[in-house]
C-alpha cells in the first residue's frame, strides 16, 4: 500500500540537503521525459515490509552479492531456519548486482519456486518477497529468469491472504512490461485472473490498488490496443474498475488512482468506446469530476488529488470525442461539469498548468459537442473567468480560445453575450500575440462576433478595430491577410 | 474558500441539473450558422468549426501529467507546496512582414507599433513619427499640386507645431529650424526630396516569397531605418538616417494601375548603387494594394483612393 504521506524520496539519502534532493529529482524527471519520448516510459513499484521504512532501503547494500551466494548455500541444505534465511535473502536482493548474481547461481530460481509453492506458509511469503525484489530489477535477464514462477503467481491471485496477494500482484505488475514475460502471462490467462481477483476482492482496497497497478502496466504497452485491450474490454474488468472509482475517504486515493489510469489507457488507445459508454463510464467519470471540482473549489485539496483528477479528465475528454450527440444527455446529464472544469482551471493554473490545459481540452470537447453546455457557460457567468486565462501560453490560451470560439459558433445570440462580457477587447490583444495559432483563432472569433450583429460590429469599430484589421492586412501570413481584408471589405466598411 | 461562486454553483444541485435535451432537437451544431444565408459573403475565407479532439496515449499534451504519475509510482512524488512550476505568459509579436520584434507586454508592442508602423507613407514606405509630420511629408513629396503651388507662394511649413510660419523652399525652412528653433542640422525628419536619390530601388519582385525577415533595426532607438532594405546602410547617403518602410504590404492584389505606379517610384536605377556594402536582403513581392494603407494621414497620398474610409 502506498500512503502518500509516508513516502520519502527514494533518490535521496539521509543527510541530503534540500537542494541536492531537488537536483536529483530533476534528473529523474529528465530521464522520465526522455523515456516517454522513446515510448519506453515504464515504472516499477516496490512494496516495503510493514516493519521497515524507506530509509532502510538506502542503506549500504554493497555486500549483497556475497550474501546472496552465502544464503543460497544455506538454503540448499534444508532446515528449520529456512524462513530466516529467506528473509536475509530478500534483504540481500535489494541490491541490483546481487539480483544478477542470484540468477546466475545454478538452480536458484528452481529453489525459490519450490519454496514459493511449498507447504510452509511463512516460507511462501518470504519467497514471494524475494521474487518481488527480483522483479524490481531493470535487467531483462532477471525478469525472464523469473518466468518459471509466473503461473504460480497467477494461481495465487485467487487466494485470500491480503499481503501475499498484494506481493504477487505487484511482482507481476513489475514483470509485465518485459515483452517476453508479457506474452507468457497473457497466454497463461493474466487478464481473467485479474478480473476474478478484482471481482472477489472488491472490498479489499489494498488488493484493488494492486490489481489496478498491474493492469495499468499491461494496458500501457505500446501494442496494447491490438491484443490486450480487446481482451480487457470483453471481461468484467471495466465495470469493476468503474465501481471502485469513487475514493474511500479512510483508505485514501490509491485504488481510485490506479483504476482511473486503467480506464484512461483503455479510452485513449481506441476511438470506439461503445463498451465503456454502455457501462456508464462517461457518467461516472464526469460526476466524480464534479465532486472533486467542488472539493477543490472549497479549498479542500487533498494531497495527490491531481493524480486522480488527471486520468479522469482524460477519460471524459476522450470518451466525449466518440460519444454520439444523441447519447450525450444520458451520459452527461449534469451541467455542473462545466463549473467543475472552470474550478479546476482556476485552482491548478499556477501549481499544475498541465492540469489546467487538460481541463481546457475537456471544455473544448464539451462545447464542441453541446449547445446546452455552451449556453450554461454563459448563463452561469463563467465566461469572464475564461477570458482572464487568455494571457497564459503553453497550450492554455489556444484551447480556451477554442472554447470561446465554440460558443460563438453556436448562435448569434451567444456572440452578442460574449461581446458584452468583454471578449472583443481581449481579442484586440490576442490578435497581437506571437503565437500564430492565437492570431488565427482570434481572427476567426472576431469574424463570428462582428457578423453576428451590427451592434457588435459597431462596438468593435469603437474599440479601434478598423485600424487593427488594417494593420493585420500587413501580417506576414497570407491567410491572415486574406481574412483581415475580407472582414474589412465585406463586413465593416461596406 | 477559494472560489465561493463556483462552490455555490456546484452545490446548488437542484438549480443546475438540467438535461442536455436541447441539443437533441437541434442536432448538428453547425447547421444554424450555415443556414443563415450569406454569412461571409462570396469567397469567405473563414472556416472555423468546432473540433472534437481525441488524444492518444503518447500525445504531447499528456506529457506533464504522465511524468507526474510516474514520479509518484517511483516514490518521487512532490507535493504542491514543494515545487512550483512556472506558468508562462504569451509574448506579443509584431506581425508586420519584415518585422520580427517580440515583446513581453502589450504596452511594449503598442509603443513599437505606434512608433514605427503607424504613420507610414504608402507611396514611399517611409515611417514618420507623427500624423502631422506624415501629412507634411506627403504634401511635400507626393503632391504634385504642392509642387506647383510652391513655385508661387510660401508652402513649406515650419515643422514645429504652433509656429505657423511658411517658407518658399525647404532650405529656408531648414535654416529657420536651426536658427530659431535650435534644431540640429541633420534633423532626421526634414530631408529634401532630392536627397531621396536612389533609395527607391525596389528590385523586381522576388519570385519566392520566403519570409526572410530583416530585423536588424527594429530594436534600435528611435525611428531610424525601420524594416530597411539592404541598401540603407550606406554611410555616404544622407538617407541612411531616414526611416523607410520595406515592402511588407499585403498580398499580391496587384492591379495593373498599381504596377504602373510602382514603376514610377522605382525610376531610380538600382545599378547606380555601386558601393552597396550589404547584399540586398530578399524582399517580399507584394504590391501595395491601391485601396489600403495603414498610414492614417496618407489618404491624400493615395493614387486610387479607397474613399470609403472617414
UniProtKB/TrEMBL annotation, chain A:
Positions in coiled-coil regions: 18-45
Keywords: Coiled coil
Protein name in UniProt: Transmembrane and coiled-coil domains 6
Entry keyword annotation includes Ribosomal protein: no
UniProtKB/TrEMBL annotation, chain B:
Positions with biased composition (Basic and acidic residues): 188-198, 241-264
Keywords, sorted A to Z: Metal-binding, Zinc, Zinc-finger
Domain of life where this protein originates: Eukaryota
UniProt xrefs under Gene3D superfamilies: Classic Zinc Finger (3.30.160.60)
Keyword Zinc: yes
UniProt biased composition (Polar residues): 269-278
Domain C2H2-type per the UniProt entry, residue ranges: 156-181
InterPro entries: ZNF511, Znf_C2H2_sf, Znf_C2H2_type
Sequence segments annotated as region (Disordered): 27-49, 188-212, 234-310
GO molecular function (one): zinc ion binding
Record protein name field: C2H2-type domain-containing protein
Amino acid at each position: 500500500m502506498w500512503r502518500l504521506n509516508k513516502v520519502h524520496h527514494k533518490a535521496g539519502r539521509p543527510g541530503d540537503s534540500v537542494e541536492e534532493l531537488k537536483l536529483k529529482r530533476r534528473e529523474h524527471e529528465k530521464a522520465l521525459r526522455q523515456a516517454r519520448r522513446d515510448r519506453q516510459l515504464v515504472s516499477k513499484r516496490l512494496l516495503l515490509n510493514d516493519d521497515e521504512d524507506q530509509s532502510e532501503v538506502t542503506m549500504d547494500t554493497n555486500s549483497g552479492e556475497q550474501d546472496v551466494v552465502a544464503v543460497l548455500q544455506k538454503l540448499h541444505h534444508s532446515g528449520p531456519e529456512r524462513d530466516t534465511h529467506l528473509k536475509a535473502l530478500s534483504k540481500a536482493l535489494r541490491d541490483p548486482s546481487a539480483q544478477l548474481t542470484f540468477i546466475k547461481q545454478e538452480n536458484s530460481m528452481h529453489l525459490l519456486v519450490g519454496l514459493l509453492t511449498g507447504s510452509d506458509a511463512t516460507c511462501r511469503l518470504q519467497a514471494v518477497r524475494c521474487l518481488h525484489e527480483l522483479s524490481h530489477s531493470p535487467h531483462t535477464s532477471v525478469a525472464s529468469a523469473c518466468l518459471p514462477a509466473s503461473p504460480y503467481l497467477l494461481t495465487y491471485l485467487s487466494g485470500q491472504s491480503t499481503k501475499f496477494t498484494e506481493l504477487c500482484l505487484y511482482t507481476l505488475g513489475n514483470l509485465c512490461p518485459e515483452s517476453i514475460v508479457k506474452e507468457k502471462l497473457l497466454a497463461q490467462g493474466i487478464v481473467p485472473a485479474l478480473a476474478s481477483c478484482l471481482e472477489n476482492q472488491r472490498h479489499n482496497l489494498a488488493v484493488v490498488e494492486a490489481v489496478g497497478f498491474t493492469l495499468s502496466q499491461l494496458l500501457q504497452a505500446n501494442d496494447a490496443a491490438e491484443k490486450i485491450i480487446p481482451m480487457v474490454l470483453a471481461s468484467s474488468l471495466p465495470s469493476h474498475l468503474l465501481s471502485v472509482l469513487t475514493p474511500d475517504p479512510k483508505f485514501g486515493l490509491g485504488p481510485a488512482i490506479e483504476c482511473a489510469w486503467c480506464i484512461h489507457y483503455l479510452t485513449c488507445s481506441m476511438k470506439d468506446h461503445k463498451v465503456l459508454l454502455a457501462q456508464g463510464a462517461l457518467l461516472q467519470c464526469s460526476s466524480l469530476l464534479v465532486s472533486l471540482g467542488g472539493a477543490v473549489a472549497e479549498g479542500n485539496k487533498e494531497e495527490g488529488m491531481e493524480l486522480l483528477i488527471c486520468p479522469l479528465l482524460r477519460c471524459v475528454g476522450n470518451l466525449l470525442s466518440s460519444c454520439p450527440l444523441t447519447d450525450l444527455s444520458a451520459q452527461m446529464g449534469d451541467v455542473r461539469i462545466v463549473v467543475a472544469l472552470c474550478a479546476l482551471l482556476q485552482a491548478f493554473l499556477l501549481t499544475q498548468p498541465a492540469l489546467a490545459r487538460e481541463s481546457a481540452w475537456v471544455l473544448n470537447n464539451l462545447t464542441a459537442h453541446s449547445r446546452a453546455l455552451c449556453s450554461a457557460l454563459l448563463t452561469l457567468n463563467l465566461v469572464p473567468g475564461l477570458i482572464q486565462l487568455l494571457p497564459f501560453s503553453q497550450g492554455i490560451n489556444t484551447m480556451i480560445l477554442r472554447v470561446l470560439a465554440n460558443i460563438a459558433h453556436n448562435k448569434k445570440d451567444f456572440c452578442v453575450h460574449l461581446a458584452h462580457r468583454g471578449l472583443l477587447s481581449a481579442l484586440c490583444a490576442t490578435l497581437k500575440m506571437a503565437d500564430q495559432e492565437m492570431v488565427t483563432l482570434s481572427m476567426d472569433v472576431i469574424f463570428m462576433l462582428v457578423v453576428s450583429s451590427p451592434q457588435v460590429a459597431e462596438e468593435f469599430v469603437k474599440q479601434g478595430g478598423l485600424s487593427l484589421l488594417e494593420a493585420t492586412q500587413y501580417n506576414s501570413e497570407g491567410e491572415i491577410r486574406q481574412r483581415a481584408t475580407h472582414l474589412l471589405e465585406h463586413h465593416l466598411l461596406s | 474558500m477559494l472560489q465561493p461562486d463556483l462552490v455555490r454553483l456546484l452545490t446548488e444541485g437542484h438549480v443546475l441539473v438540467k438535461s442536455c435535451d436541447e441539443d437533441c432537437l437541434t442536432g448538428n451544431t453547425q447547421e444554424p450558422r450555415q443556414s443563415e444565408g450569406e454569412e461571409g459573403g462570396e469567397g469567405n475565407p473563414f472556416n472555423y468549426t468546432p473540433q472534437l479532439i481525441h488524444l492518444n496515449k503518447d500525445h504531447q499534451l499528456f506529457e506533464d501529467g504522465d511524468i507526474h504519475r510516474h514520479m509518484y509510482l517511483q516514490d518521487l512524488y512532490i507535493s504542491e507546496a514543494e515545487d512550483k512550476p512556472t506558468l508562462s505568459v504569451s509574448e506579443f509579436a509584431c506581425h508586420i512582414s519584415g518585422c520580427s520584434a517580440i515583446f513581453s507586454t502589450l504596452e511594449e508592442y503598442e509603443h513599437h507599433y505606434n512608433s514605427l508602423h503607424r504613420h507610414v507613407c504608402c507611396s514611399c514606405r517611409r515611417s514618420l513619427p507623427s500624423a502631422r509630420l506624415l501629412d507634411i511629408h506627403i504634401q511635400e513629396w507626393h503632391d504634385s499640386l504642392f509642387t506647383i503651388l510652391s513655385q508661387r507662394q510660401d508652402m513649406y511649413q515650419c515643422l514645429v507645431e504652433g509656429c505657423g510660419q511658411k517658407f518658399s523652399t525647404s532650405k529656408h525652412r531648414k535654416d529657420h529650424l536651426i536658427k530659431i528653433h535650435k534644431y540640429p542640422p541633420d534633423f532626421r525628419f526634414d530631408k529634401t526630396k532630392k536627397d531621396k536619390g536612389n533609395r527607391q530601388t525596389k528590385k523586381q519582385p522576388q519570385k519566392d516569397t520566403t519570409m526572410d525577415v530583416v530585423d536588424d533595426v527594429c530594436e534600435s532607438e528611435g525611428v531610424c531605418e525601420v524594416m530597411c532594405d539592404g541598401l540603407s546602410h550606406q554611410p555616404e547617403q544622407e538617407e541612411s538616417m531616414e526611416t523607410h518602410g520595406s515592402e511588407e504590404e499585403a498580398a499580391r492584389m496587384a492591379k495593373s494601375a498599381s504596377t504602373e505606379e510602382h514603376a514610377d517610384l522605382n525610376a531610380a536605377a538600382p545599378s547606380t548603387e555601386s558601393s552597396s556594402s550589404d547584399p540586398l536582403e530578399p524582399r517580399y513581392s507584394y504590391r501595395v494594394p491601391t485601396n489600403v494603407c495603414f498610414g492614417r494621414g496618407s489618404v491624400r497620398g493615395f493614387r486610387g483612393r479607397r474613399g470609403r474610409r472617414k
